[in-house]
Automatic annotation (TrEMBL):
It catalyses: 1,6-anhydro-N-acetyl-beta-muramate + ATP + H2O = N-acetyl-D-muramate 6-phosphate + ADP + H(+). Pathway: Amino-sugar metabolism; 1,6-anhydro-N-acetylmuramate degradation; Cell wall biogenesis; peptidoglycan recycling. The gene is anmK. InterPro entries: Anhydro_N_Ac-Mur_kinase (IPR005338), ATPase_NBD (IPR043129). Keywords: ATP-binding, Carbohydrate metabolism, Kinase, Nucleotide-binding, Transferase. This is Anhydro-N-acetylmuramic acid kinase. Gene3D superfamilies: 3.30.420.40.
Amino acid sequence: MRMIGLLSGTSHDAADAAVADLDFSAPGELTMRPRGLVSTPFPPDLRAELLAALPPAAVPAGRLCRLDTRLGRFFGTAAARALAGPAEGRADWIASHGQTVYHWVEGARAHGTLQLGAAAWIAETTGLPVVSDFRGRDVAAGGHGAPLVAALDALLLPGPGHGALNLGGIANLTVRLPDGDGPGAPSRREAGSGAGTAAAPAVLGYDVGPAGALIDEAAAWATQGESRVDTGGARAARGTVDERLLARLLDDPYYRLPPPKSTGKEHFHAGYLRDRLAGARPDPDDLLATLTELTARLVADACRAHGLSDLYVSGGGLRNHHLTARLRARAGNVRIVDSTALGVAPQEKEALLFALLGFLAVHGVPANPVGATGARHLVLLGSLTPGRAPLRLPDPVAEPPRRLVLLRD
């Protein structure tokens, strides 16, 4: 199948659409041939409308309805560009993550998650069937619905001691475990699929803490709203870490929760930052330096806690050179490289994830990484929206992939 994986992350700057050909090449083995990535920037007015709807804002239902429609139309346009470009006019399915506007977590438990960007608009624009709403079923099964990227990491990471880090609004980590050592995932028969007992490689995954979520807010303050990015980490590099503020930031109950766990901008937002500053008005560059150090310390501490030897990094945070430099300085002997070393370019990784999850969904393969989400059992992810043609699904596949072979032209 030729899949288009569609993603808009917590930076809200663009929709990324990755085209990939996927096939079950052998029992337990999956091949993926990436065909290209198309990034469509958010129209400024749509991005402003989205930002105004994010926590801690209280948003009426009418505005959410309009935003859901506008995002669906925008994602349809992004998918159509990928269809006409690297897909060369042919694709079988679109897998759309949507735009997260709220992730309902209380303490150690997730209760719900909301992604907007109505799939019907994507199907109407492209004529293709769409898989969407990937997170909700995992939450219903007792999981956090995040971080789903661990499903791809489990197939990419070489072995124990290797980890994958995504630096987006939130920093999330996947750790490859020795087979048999992961949280107990029941067989697919126990999950109600009627299939066998093979399982994907064992991983542990969780949201470590904030990355761009707080850094971008501080950048907006520093520039009086002209920019939400500390380009290259230049301002943080000029600043000095405020150790007292850093200690206050680290004194957050979230960091003491055991994984699996998840968080988001519902917790780490502008109001949170104002509260932690407790009336102080630090130099903007010092604030950016401190927030950058917070992320570097959280990730480096996690690397040590899990005994990692190698860390493969992706996400927009890679463009923050000061952040990556501080992470290397704090991580000691951990080898830190970007995800290209695994065969996947950092900018395409998450969009390829949803191409993979969509492919597994239409083949009836449960794909929630229970070692990362904390779900009670494996479940089928996603809801299906037909395209213009009648919906035809392939025969279910009896065995989940344990190995991913990446092919490049």
